Amino acid sequence: MPMMPFQILGIWLRGLLAIALLGAGLYLLKEWYDSPRTVVEAPRAVEVDRRDGSPARDEGVRRVVHVSRWHLGLDRPTAFLLGGLALLFATLGGGLWGTRYPKKSEGKPPGAGDPASSSSRGTVHRVRAPDGTELHATCVGPEDAPAIVMTHGWGVDGSEWDWSRDKLASRHRLIIWDLPGLGQSQRPANNDYRLENLAHHLDSITALAGGKPVVLLGHSIGGMINLTYARLFPEKLGTRVTGIIQVHTTYTNPVKTTKWSALYSALQKPLLEPLCHVMIWTAPAVWVMNWMSYFNGSAHRSTDKSSFAGTESREQLDRAARYLPKAWPGVLARGMLAMFRYDATSTLGTISVPTLVITGDRDDTTQPWASGVMAESIPKAGLHTQSPARHMGHMEHHDDFAAAVSSFVDSLGVQAASGAALVENMSV
C-alpha cells in the first residue's frame, strides 16, 4: 500500500505484533517440551538367595523408572502445544487467511483478478536521471497516441496501474515508471529523496515521449511530485505538459490532510520523525518485521482498512499488502522524511494547464477536502469523486478510473484542436 509519513507508527506496531506472536508461540512450545511427563515406577528389583529363595541383600539395586510419551488430552501440556502451534501458524500463515475475506471478488467484472505486471508488457527503458540514478520505465500503447506519464505512490511501484493499464493503453501511450529505490529503479547514490529531486527524475522520464507533449498523472506522492514539477518547471506547462491528473493526493504535508491530523501534527517532531531515522538505522530488522506482518495477515488487515472500501478483489488486496515488505525500509523512511517538508499551496494558483483531481469519498489517508482545495485553487481544474473509495480507489474501481482519465485526456485534444482552428481563422 502507498505509504505516508504518519503510517510509520503502523509499521512499528505491526512489526512488534509480529515479534510478539512469534515469541509467544515459541514460549508455549518450550513450555510444552519442558512440561513433566507421566512417571511409572517398575517393581523394585530384589536379589534372591538361590538356596532357599529368601530375599538377599538389595543395597545398590536401583529402581527402573519409565517416562511415558505425551498424549493428547485435556491438560496443560496439550494446551501449550496447540496454543504454540496456533500462534506459529498465525505468524507464518495468517496472511493466507487474510486474503480470503468473504465476498471479495464476488460479482467483480472481468479483469478484477491479478493481471500481468506492467514490466512484462510494452517496451522497457532505462533512463539516467541528472543525479546519475538509473530509472526503470515501461512504455505501452500506440506510439502516436496522446502520452500519459504515470507516477505511482510511495512504497509501491508501477504495477499499481496494472488493473487500468490495458484499458488506457488501447487509446493512449502510457509511460509507467518506478520511483528511485522502488520497483526496478536504482536508489540514488546520495540518498536524496527530496520532492525536488524526484521532480527532476520525472522531467527525465518525460523525454520518453519523444518530444511530444504529455499529461502528468500521479497517485499519492506522485501527485505531490506533479505539483513540485509545476513549481520548478513552470515554463513547460502548456508546451511540454498539456494537463495534470492528481489521484488521491494532497497539496501539502500529508500529516495535515489526513484523519487525526491534529494528533499526528503534534507527534511529528517528537515521535514520527525520530521513528523514521530509527527505521533507516535498523532497516534489515524492519524489513524482516514487514515480511512477518505480511505473512501473519496484519498487513492485509491494515491495507484493507486504509486503502480499500470493501469491494476490492482478493488479488488487489494481496498485491497492495505485498508492496510493504518488498520496499526497503530505509528508502521508505527517507521518502517519508521528505514529505514532512512538502508544501505546494502557493503553486496551485500558478498552474496554467487543465487539471483533473480524482478523490475517494472515504479516503482517510488524503481526505477528500484536500482534493477540494486543489480543485478550487487550480484555475482550470475539475473534480471527480470515486464512491465508495479510499486511497486505492483507482485500483478498486479501475474501470471508473480509466474512463475518467480517458475522458479528460480526450478533452485536452479537443481543446488543442479548437485552439489551433481559432488561431488559423484569426490569421486568415
List keywords for this structure.
about 425 residues; alpha/beta; Rossmann fold; 10 strands; about 45% helix
Can you give a write-up of this model?
It is a single chain. This protein has one domain (5-12, 104-109, 122-422): Alpha/Beta hydrolase fold, catalytic domain (Rossmann fold, 3-Layer(aba) Sandwich), CATH 3.40.50. The chain has an 8-stranded mixed beta sheet, sandwiched between helices. It has a two-stranded antiparallel ribbon with strand order 1-2. Helix 6 (261-281) packs antiparallel against helix 10 (329-340). The chain is elongated, with a radius of gyration of 30 Å. Helix content is 46%, strand content 13%. The chain has 428 residues and is of the alpha/beta class. The two termini are 55 Å apart. The chain has helices spanning 8-34, 76-98, 162-169, 195-206, 221-232, 261-281, 283-296, 298-307, 314-326, 329-340, 368-377, 393-396, 398-427; strands at residues 39-41, 65-67, 123-128, 134-140, 147-151, 173-177, 214-219, 241-247, 355-360, 381-386. The model is unreliable at 102-111 and 417-428 (pLDDT under 50).
Can you describe this structure in just a few lines?
The protein has 428 residues and is α/β, with parallel strands linked by helices.
Helices and strands in order:
Elements: H1 8-34, E1 39-41, E2 65-67, H2 76-98, E3 123-128, E4 134-140, E5 147-151, H3 162-169, E6 173-177, H4 195-206, E7 214-219, H5 221-232, E8 241-247, H6 261-281, H7 283-296, H8 298-307, H9 314-326, H10 329-340, E9 355-360, H11 368-377, E10 381-386, H12 393-396, H13 398-427
Parallel strand pairs: 5-6, 5-7, 7-8, 8-9, 9-10
Antiparallel strand pairs: 1-2, 3-4, 4-6
Helix pairs in contact: 1-2, 1-7, 2-7, 3-13, 4-5, 6-10, 7-9, 8-9
